[in-house]
Specification:
alpha/beta; six-stranded mixed beta sheet; single chain; D-Maltodextrin-Binding Protein, domain 2; 2 domains; globular
């Protein structure tokens, strides 16, 4: 009798252990299936501040969601150029990207103002606008206009944009007259036209060759892009115009965002803002070092008359009010 009872108890114990193991196994499977993997594409190269910030964002998301959300980062335009990435977010083929704010002007026109030359006085001015009422309004209207493009952070500062040329130094705005300067379409094209240049859109991937062959006389880019892409090999002069200060915008597909729990949504937004702060510290640290590197690489550094450039750029504003939205320019300028 005792032997029988012992056998029954052992049987129940074994059954219980097997049951617990099955529950744990099923829970493990469920957790694995519950993990959300999001693809984050951008055009910066490894080693640049944006990519470092993207990796920190991925780390923070993993930490804050307890591994429930994983970010896979694709740098160097692996998933496409800026326009491709924005459209990818809109369509849901790309989950996340980060772009200059002017690139969003084709999706909600007032964003063009945020990258118009000399609209901002400093990085502090940029953050006050983009993290304040104006930035919130722009973000809400972009989502409303597109239905699927949700800005989740607008505080990733970019290194200032400067003019660099192959043959002729640019010391004053008059030096730009008639020069073929490669600019992206949008606010920079309009701004350089107002400054007297002949702005020429060229795909970034073709810019090095275009400058080598004399298709354009120069270009303008953030200083880290000038160095990291080797433009010092073909451009003699770097003019520190600092014509654009800007905060890049981290975008997420709103459908993907909506499928996350409220806790994970908050975690992703918090991680995006924290990663922006992390990236900004790197940007501030490397800005001066890039100027030194370019000088050591043989470029002549010019400190131009920035006021003259700013006054010339301002002459183009009135004609753009109807196209980009009236009142935005002055609101941004006044928000110092």
């Amino acid at each position: 009798m005792e032997l029988r009872n012992l056998t029954v108890r052992r049987s129940k114990l074994v059954t219980g252990i097997i049951g617990l193991m099955l529950v744990a196994f099923l829970a493990l499977i469920a957790t694995g299936h519950a993990q959300t993997v999001l693809r984050f594409g951008h055009i910066a190269n490894p080693g640049q501040p944006v990519h470092s910030g993207a990796l920190e964002f991925a780390r923070l998301v993993d930490e804050k969601t307890g591994g429930a959300v994983k970010i896979e980062v694709f740098p160097s335009g692996q998933l496409g150029g800026s326009r491709d990435l924005i459209e990818g977010v809109q369509l849901g083929t790309v989950d996340l990207t980060i772009v200059g704010p002017g690139a969003l002007g084709g999706f909600y026109a007032p964003y063009n103002w945020t990258e118009y030359p000399f609209i901002y006085a400093s990085d502090e001015h940029v953050l006050k606008v983009m993290q304040g009422e104006i930035g919130s309004e722009l973000a809400a209207e972009l989502l409303k206009a597109t239905g699927t493009i949700r800005p989740i952070a607008q505080n990733w500062l970019r290194t200032p944009r400067h003019v660099f040329t192959t043959k002729k130094p640019v010391q004053t705005v008059e030096d730009l007259a008639g020069m073929k300067i490669r600019v992206p379409s949008g606010p920079l094209l309009e701004g350089f036209r107002a400054m007297g240049a002949s702005p020429t859109p060229v795909d970034f991937s073709e810019l090095f060759t275009a400058m080598q062959q004399g298709v354009v006389d120069g270009a303008e880019l953030p200083i880290d892009y000038i160095y990291d892409n080797g433009f010092y090999e073909i451009a003699k002069y770097l003019s520190l115009t600092g014509h654009v200060y800007a905060a890049q915008v981290l975008l997420m597909n709103d459908t993907k965002f909506g499928k996350l729990s409220a806790e994970n949504q908050a975690a992703i937004v918090d991680a995006a803002i924290e990663a922006g702060i992390y990236q900004n510290a790197i940007t501030a640290e490397v800005t001066d070092s890039y100027q030194q590197k370019l000088e050591e690489a043989g470029m002549t550094i010019i400190h131009p008359d920035r006021e003259g450039f700013a006054e010339a750029a301002a002459t183009g504003v009135e004609a753009l009010q109807a196209k980009w939205g009236a009142g935005w320019y002055q609101r941004i300028r006044d928000a110092r």
